[in-house]
# Entry
Amino acid sequence: MATTRLATKGDIDLLFDMIRSLANHEGQLNSVLTKRENLLRDGFSDIPKFEVIIAQDNENVMGYISYTWRYSIWKAETFMQIDDVYVKSEYRGQNIGQKLMLKAQEICQSKGVSQIKWEVEQDNDRALKFYEGLGAESKVKVICTWN
# Structure
């Protein structure tokens, strides 16, 4: 049975491998510029820039969610911004994604945070169906980047 927990420094190698696996799955492996030492510094310092939830079954890591905390000026409140949701291919279809999302919701509730936001590719019908099944609303919005 899968359990969820917050990642620790000891999870860096597993996390790095899953980040690369997700990027490879999305055909974006060349976009992964982070290194293990970046993850260690930025996620496990006194003031972490991100946090990670791990899904695990005994010794096997099954997937993860990474997120940051953001602030909405309009709503005058903090919200969770999910960066990655990833379940290893051999564990898909076993409700691991749902357990990860419910853990994210639980963390928000424990902090008095009322909203979670994340991005999904418009053509990722399977993910959209999954998230809508959880009760999430889809909103079309253009994301701009400026390098």
User: Anything to note?
Assistant: The chain has a mean pLDDT of 94. The chain has one domain: 3-133.
